[in-house]
Amino acid sequence: MSPKPMVRPGGRSARVQESVHAAIRELVGEVGRDALTVPMVATRAGVTPSTIYRRWGDLQELLSDVAVERLRPETDPADLGSLRADLDAWAEQFIDEMASPPGRAYIRDALLGDPDGTNAGQCSAYAAEQIDVMLARAVQRGEPVPETELLIDRVVAPIMYRILFRPGRLDAAYARELVTNAVSAQQTEAGAGPAQAAAPRRSKKKPDS
Amino acid sequence: MSPKPMVRPGGRSARVQESVHAAIRELVGEVGRDALTVPMVATRAGVTPSTIYRRWGDLQELLSDVAVERLRPETDPADLGSLRADLDAWAEQFIDEMASPPGRAYIRDALLGDPDGTNAGQCSAYAAEQIDVMLARAVQRGEPVPETELLIDRVVAPIMYRILFRPGRLDAAYARELVTNAVSAQQTEAGAGPAQAAAPRRSKKKPDS
DNA sequence: GCCTAGAAGCAACAAAATCGCTTTAAGGTG
DNA sequence: CACCTTAAAGCGATTTTGTTGCTTCTAGGC
Predict the structure, then answer these.
(1) CB contact under 8 A, A161 and B177
(2) A136 lies in some domain
(3) Which residues contact B80 (CB under 8 A, 6 or more apart)?
(4) Is the domain of A18 the same as that of A93?
(5) Total domain count for chain A?
(6) Which of A151, B105, B144, B158 keeps 20 to 30 A from A117, CA to CA?
(7) What does residue B55 show for φ and ψ, rounded to 5 degrees?
(8) Looking at strand C, which nucleotides approach a protein CB closer than 7 A?
């Protein structure tokens, strides 16, 4: 019971994690996501299958980890001079990325092998962070801003709901409509939105590279 | 190429389907959802494993079918005299059912083994039907009513998003808040909501009981 | 009442997941 | 800086699951 043995974020474990993730990225490109098997990934990564089974449990949890990594936004949203413009552009790009076939696949994978919701929470946190960046800029400009939570309910949630549950209509016009409704709501409904700090946590067993 | 051999909705196939579904319901109660295996289900149902593999492909698709069945609403929403009251009560019940641990499990299962989105679409259709019932009643009373799509975006989507992606705060107060915002929006934004008939389709290989 | 073909059963096989045990090497300790 | 301690990786035997070709059954059409 030493105080902090915990996870082992560096060294061999880290190398294994990295080579396994890399193996998956390669193999998804070569044979397709559906043909993946644990033994196949293990061979490519140069580890034994039992290592993967012990660390991740099954292929789904592993794919979930990889998916979350790929859903991490690479850059901050563009600064276009006004909150409205920033949100429009961001929402449109969000739809483009998330509603595309690979995007849908990543979302599904992220949700799939995620018993405790950690990975799903992380996805949500990414969106919230992006929104916060835009809101912070708007505040600095002196614009009135809605709550992060309101934007999540009004913009992010409908988009994700449609991606997961419904067929058609996910285009730029829809994005603008959502943004319009969300920012105009901020005037009429002011503080009526939920105010709740989403605590982004991450722990579990996985060493982040 | 005879005109309608198709699926075979009755007879032995139907009995097999029913006994397999029943076996799953029983076993989920006995050993828990995570301990299920195809051979186990097959034995309990009195069929050979290969039958299950051939008809459903894998455990996930099978669980997805069962989950959708259980997510089907059993009754129409209560008629409480006004749209507002109906929606409040319905949203609260929706949260209770869907955000409970078993509810979450069904939602996940329904999304999971569902390559083509048929089952997910069905879930969404259930909610839309319930909403339509309430709206139709409101119209008969002479109340002004919002679009179904607006209610899906403003009430259903945020709830489902939070269930799937975010931890806390899913209570009756939140439900009321969403409903309030949705019905008041109908005044200010009138026809600004999306208008799109979601075509509920169902085909695939499965004979519905 | 006979055909037909879609589905289930069966059994041999192939692939996967699991588990006990051994070995390696991070990272803390004296 | 050598030395422990211990989490994690490797290995191989074993169990469990998934696949496949072929046979048998039977619902539904004629």
Answers:
(1) no
(2) yes
(3) B86, B89
(4) no
(5) 2
(6) A151
(7) -80, -35
(8) 5-11, 15-20, 25-29
